[in-house]
Amino acid sequence: MDGSTRFYARYYGGLLRRSGFSLAKGLALPLVRAEAVRSGAHAMAYPISTYAPWQSDSEFRRVYGKVRANTLVDIWRCHELWSLLAEVCEIPGAVVEVGVWRGGSGALMAARMAGLGLGDPVYLCDTWEGVVKTGPDDIYYHDGEHADTSKAIVQALVARMGLANVQLLQGVFPEETAAQVTADALRLVHVDVDVYQSAKDVIEWAWPRLSSGGVAVFDDYGFPACPGVTRFVEEQRRMPDRLVLHNLNGHGIVIKR
Ligand SMILES: C[S@@+](CC[C@H](N)C(=O)[O-])C[C@H]1O[C@@H](n2cnc3c(N)ncnc32)[C@H](O)[C@@H]1O
């Protein structure tokens, strides 16, 4: 096994362990990826850049160590959320994450906000009963996916990390819980909902509340199993009020002009 094969074996192994290993999922991941590549719209991309700030940022590594068992989000995307929060520290507003699962990426962001001395709340919103609103674009997903969690698991993580700035909102967002977001403005929205319609509904609610210069980060962008999210990010290109960035790590980053 060469270095990169070993790396991907470890990476997918960890992902499967965290998401509840199943043979079906284990076999499906590489197949879905191969099918996406065959379609011509996807390719395995290996950036030649080697800059890796997540390796030397000791505070990030300390906090990431506390959340990594509770997240499906890899270290590269976690570090991006971490660094973006510093980038938007002058922008007013709260943080909203829709798609929390076991709380890892949300707790990381809450720890970062506190570490930066920013007192705004971090709203972590999930059904804790799995994905909703799967539609024709979301061919690899069904409603109820990622239900292997609970609000109590996230509460326990938040308590272990001593985070006082977190509010947990349970229900379908935005319909059932957005009214509980009492902050006047938002600085960052993390959309990690896996499917087209949820991503669209979240952003239609959040965009008017996002401060100018604020950021919406779409997880799963470009992932072979999440074509609905990729489609929704692409639909936002050339809209006059936003700048859309394609990051090879699986983040679509949309900045409000
Ligand atoms: C991939 S997981 C989130 C991963 C998480 N950010 C982490 O750190 O591992 C997706 C989550 O989105 C939630 N979800 C999807 N659509 C939703 C919606 N419209 N409202 C609330 N939760 C939603 C699901 O219940 C699931 O827990």
Main features:
alpha/beta, Rossmann fold, 2 domains, 9 helices, binds S-adenosylmethionine
Estimated share of beta-strand residues: 15-25%
Pick out the low-confidence regions: none
Instruction: Give me the count of strands.
Output: 7
What pattern of helices and strands is seen along the backbone? HHHHHEHEHEEHEHEE
Gap from first CA to last CA: 46 Å
Q: Please give the share of residues in helix.
A: 25-40%
Oligomeric state of the chains?
single chain
The shape is globular
Radius of gyration: 17 Å
Mean pLDDT: 94
Class computed from helices, strands and strand pairing: alpha/beta
What is the CATH first-level class name of the largest domain?
Answer: Alpha Beta
| Strand arrangement in the largest pleated sheet | 3-2-1-4-5-7-6
| Name of the CATH architecture of the largest domain | 3-Layer(aba) Sandwich
Largest sheet: 7 strands, mixed
Q: Which homologous superfamily in CATH is the superfamily of the largest domain?
A: Vaccinia Virus protein VP39
Cofactors and ligands: S-adenosylmethionine
The CATH topology of the largest domain comes to Rossmann fold
Tally the structural domains. 2
